[in-house]
């Protein structure tokens, strides 16, 4: 494979996805059972080998096969050779598993504040009036420096807004207690669906999605979404949040030799189902502008008409598998799909779409000059990894040697809006050893992601970068993935007040103690865990500064917090 392109397949000529133009986004479409998942697997492998990290959702469980080498079959090897893959071999990709529910991968969390009122309103299916009240609650939290981390913080904030409704009306607008009650009921419903697993800390750090192996391969981040997809609104909102976070946090880089990240949105129709016009406009804006951040977005769906025309028009790289035309509506979809391609005089595109065999597709990608390529009928290159699901034991083996380690395994519960608004704010023992990458019983991070399997097994190469011998690196040889910032954690067997009431020994004057040391202990907290006056004042000042910063926070394009 040339370093600047990915081989997709071959028709009358080889078909390539050109990496310098891969941030112009793409589409993989086709009816069920026509080979979309296999095509997606080939594309993801190509990105990884080219040094581009990938994030994708695995709804059916098939994409997990990327973590295992393919089963050697002569027919597949012959097909790969016939399509021009001279370096074809059976190989697993360096996979990292994620799961919102923390069952089949590393837990993925975001704070309520990061989600923002616009996406949270979408998640709760609120009407305009209810969204307005939710926006008022977020504005009040920003103005008063209240940390919104999880559901209990949001519940406490909404109750607080209801109690102060008359007082807040002059500055923020009218707030109905009935509306607050409706939002609280929606929160309860969402909580029963398991959404509370997603909100909290430690929140996901985007750098953990953009790791490279020392040999230059990009990590393949697979979100286990079989359970998540059972709640389509939660699934779509989560991926929208992640896309908006990438848009807000990544710097402008313009056009690069290859993307910094490829973001794959499977079952893309869920993103646009019943979406409010205001949110749709924001989505279109993100898709249009995120390419300048070095991110390529690839939508996977059955019918191209599942996507709004304004979004569809921005997808320069397209792979169209077969569509079935059994009804007038189906025939209309086929015509619409055909019209999006640059015509090829050798065949009629509309007819070809209904005639394609499994593993065959119409391919049109942006050429090196930026112009759309003439559509070609091509056979798609088979993937090097396993085509199909993996066993729980194989998943566990991959997880055991993940470069993320136990970083996200233990939930944290910091002092936040709930404690402040309910009068439960208290001093909690600091975590003596915040979890860095590789802690909490994970595989030792000695610079290698050591798998148990040898050749022919799952990826077992090292993940350390040359600039940091013990940590995975980001694209371009950047800084290693950071460890968790210090945060308060609820002890497993003690209440919040346990550390506060710990007994302290009396001062020993003969051993150099005395009132000077007593005063020093009072001011600084001494060598124990309890805060001294100076430490408490410093932390209070930090919280006050945080409140001032909170008042200056700018909401991002999808309502998430823009971190500056």
TrEMBL record:
Superkingdom of origin organism: Bacteria
Bias kind Low complexity: ranges: 460-506
Domain Helicase HerA-like C-terminal span(s) in chain numbering: 10-433, 527-561
Pfam families reported in the protein's UniProt record: HerA_C
InterPro entries: HerA_C (IPR033186), P-loop_NTPase (IPR027417), T4SS_component (IPR051162)
Region (Disordered) location: 426-519
Name of this protein: Helicase HerA-like C-terminal domain-containing protein
Native organism: Muricoccus pecuniae
């Amino acid at each position: 494979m040339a370093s600047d392109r990915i081989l997709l397949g071959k028709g009358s000529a080889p078909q390539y996805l050109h990496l310098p133009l891969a941030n112009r986004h793409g589409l993989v479409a086709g009816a069920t059972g026509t080979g979309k998942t296999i095509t997606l697997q080939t594309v993801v492998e190509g990105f990884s080998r080219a040094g581009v990290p990938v994030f994708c959702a695995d709804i059916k469980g098939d994409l997990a096969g990327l973590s295992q080498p393919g089963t050697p079959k002569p027919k597949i090897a012959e097909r790969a050779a016939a399509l021009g893959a001279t370096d074809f071999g059976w190989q697993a990709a360096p996979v990292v598993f994620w799961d919102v529910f923390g069952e089949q991968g590393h837990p993925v969390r975001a704070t309520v504040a990061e989600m923002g009122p616009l996406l949270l309103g979408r998640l709760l299916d609120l009407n305009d009036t209810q969204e307005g009240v939710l926006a008022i609650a977020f504005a009040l939290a920003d103005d008063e420096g209240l940390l919104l981390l999880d559901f209990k913080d949001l519940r406490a904030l909404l109750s607080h807004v209801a109690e102060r409704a008359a007082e807040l009306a002059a500055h923020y607008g009218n707030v109905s207690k009935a509306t607050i009650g409706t939002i609280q009921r929606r929160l309860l419903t969402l909580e029963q669906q398991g959404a509370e697993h997603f909100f909290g800390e430690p929140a996901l750090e985007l750098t953990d999605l953009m790791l490279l192996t020392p040999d230059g391969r990009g990590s393949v981040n697979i979100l286990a979404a079989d359970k998540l997809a059972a709640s389509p609104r939660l699934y779509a909102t989560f991926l929208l949040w992640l896309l908006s976070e990438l848009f807000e946090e990544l710097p402008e880089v313009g056009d690069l030799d290859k993307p910094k990240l490829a973001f794959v949105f499977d079952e893309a129709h869920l993103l646009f189902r019943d979406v409010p016009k205001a949110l749709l406009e924001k989505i279109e804006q993100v898709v249009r502008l995120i390419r300048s951040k070095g991110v390529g977005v690839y939508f996977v769906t059955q019918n191209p008409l599942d996507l709004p025309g304004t979004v569809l028009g921005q997808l320069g790289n397209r792979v169209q598998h077969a569509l079935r035309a059994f009804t007038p509506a189906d025939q209309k979809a086929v015509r619409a799909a055909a019209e999006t391609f640059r015509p090829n005089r050798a065949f009629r595109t509309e007819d070809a779409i209904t005639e394609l065999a499994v593993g065959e597709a119409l391919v049109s990608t942006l050429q090196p000059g930026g112009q759309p390529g003439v559509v070609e009928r091509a056979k798609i290159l088979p993937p090097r990894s396993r085509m199909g699901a993996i066993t729980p034991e194989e998943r566990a083996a991959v997880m055991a040697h993940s470069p993320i380690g136990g970083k996200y395994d233990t939930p944290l519960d910091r002092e936040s809006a709930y404690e402040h608004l309910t009068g439960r704010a208290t001093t909690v023992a600091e975590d003596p050893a915040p979890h860095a990458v590789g802690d909490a019983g994970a595989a030792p991070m000695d610079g290698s992601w050591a798998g148990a399997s040898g050749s022919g097994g799952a990826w077992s190469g090292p993940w350390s970068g040359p600039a940091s011998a013990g940590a995975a690196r980001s694209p371009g040889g950047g800084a290693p993935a950071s460890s968790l910032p210090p945060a308060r954690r609820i002890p497993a067997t003690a209440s919040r007040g346990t550390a506060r009431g710990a007994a302290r020994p009396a001062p020993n004057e003969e051993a150099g103690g005395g009132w000077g040391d007593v005063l020093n202990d009072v001011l600084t907290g001494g060598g124990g865990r309890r805060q001294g006056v100076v430490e408490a004042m410093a932390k209070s000042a930090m919280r006050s500064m945080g409140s001032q910063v909170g008042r200056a926070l700018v909401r991002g394009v999808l309502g998430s917090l823009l971190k500056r």
